[in-house]
């Protein structure tokens, strides 16, 4: 029973808003020591868990790779590529990415993209470059953040509605397993995947329309920003004349 004090450490750590990694690490050490493990055994347990967790290992490897790619001009090359495609606006580009993300997720390839792997180093810079090409200059920071948020949103929505069309995804198997065991039914994963296709099509049409409308929103907000800059410049000239 006293071993469960590790749970209390987790609750206190999160309640006082401590670093999550520190809280979990301390809770693991406390639980191990209370469970009569030696410090060497606790350390060995941490090492074995880290080595056996593929997701942690991949995460550690992915970040340096993305950093090196950005360091040697990946974002600049992405911007240059989009700058050569004059007719590819931000909304059209993100709609195309939404379609690709849904199709790849629908066949089980959910890990080929994501906020860290593709959105930040590639998709967001390309969307920004398309908007800058249209605007003829750098974007205001507020619009830049807006374009980045839509790039991340296209990735998330594409995966969310696309992966349910793949019958071997975890959520489909969880639903069928729960329904069959709890309500004594014979629901097949293929049935759920088929019903997910209309939802995915509707999601693409609705969010694709929002992304295409983004071009008009950016155009309006750029015009407002330009007018504000012009007024500020005139106000500055009048102040100098008054002096």
* Helical/strand content category: mainly alpha
Q: Helical region count?
A: 10
Q: Compute the separation of the termini in Å.
A: 79 Å
Report the β-strand fraction as a percent range: under 5%
Query: Any idea what the shape is?
Result: extended
Q: Give unreliable regions as ranges.
A: none
Major beta sheet summary: none
Average of pLDDT = 79
Which terms would index this structure?
243 residues, mainly alpha, 0% strand, extended
What does this structure look like?
The protein is extended. Helices cover 81% and strands 0% of the residues. The protein has 243 residues and is mostly helical. It has ten helices and no strands.
Tell me the layout of helices and strands.
Blueprint: H1 5-15, H2 20-34, H3 39-52, H4 54-71, H5 74-84, H6 90-106, H7 115-135, H8 141-162, H9 170-183, H10 189-242
Helix pairs in contact: 1-2, 2-3, 5-7, 6-7, 6-8, 6-10, 7-8, 8-10
In short:
81% of the residues lie in helices and 0% in strands. With 243 residues, it is mostly helical. The model has no long low-confidence stretch (mean pLDDT 79).
């Amino acid at each position: 029973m006293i071993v469960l004090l590790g749970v209390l450490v987790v609750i206190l750590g999160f309640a006082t808003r401590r670093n999550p990694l520190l809280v979990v690490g301390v809770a693991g050490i406390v639980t191990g020591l209370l469970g009569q493990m030696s410090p060497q055994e606790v350390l060995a347990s941490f090492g074995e868990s880290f080595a056996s967790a593929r997701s942690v290992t991949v995460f550690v490897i992915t970040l340096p790779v993305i950093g090196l790619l950005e360091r040697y001009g990946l974002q600049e090359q992405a911007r240059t590529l989009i700058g050569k495609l004059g007719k590819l606006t931000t909304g059209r580009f993100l709609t195309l990415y939404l379609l690709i993300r849904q199709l790849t997720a629908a066949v089980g390839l959910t890990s080929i993209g994501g906020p860290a792997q593709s959105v930040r180093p590639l998709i967001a810079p390309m969307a920004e470059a398309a908007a800058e090409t249209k605007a003829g200059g750098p974007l205001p920071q507020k619009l830049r953040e807006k374009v980045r948020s839509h790039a991340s949103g296209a990735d998330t929505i594409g995966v969310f509605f696309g992966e349910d069309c793949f019958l071997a995804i975890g959520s489909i198997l969880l639903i069928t397993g729960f329904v069959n065991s709890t309500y004594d039914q014979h629901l097949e994963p293929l049935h759920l995947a088929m019903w997910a296709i209309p939802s995915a099509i509707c999601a693409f049409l609705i969010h694709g329309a929002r992304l295409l409308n983004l071009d008009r929103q950016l155009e309006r907000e750029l015009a407002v920003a330009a007018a504000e800059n012009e007024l500020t410049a005139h106000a500055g000239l009048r102040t100098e004349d008054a002096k």
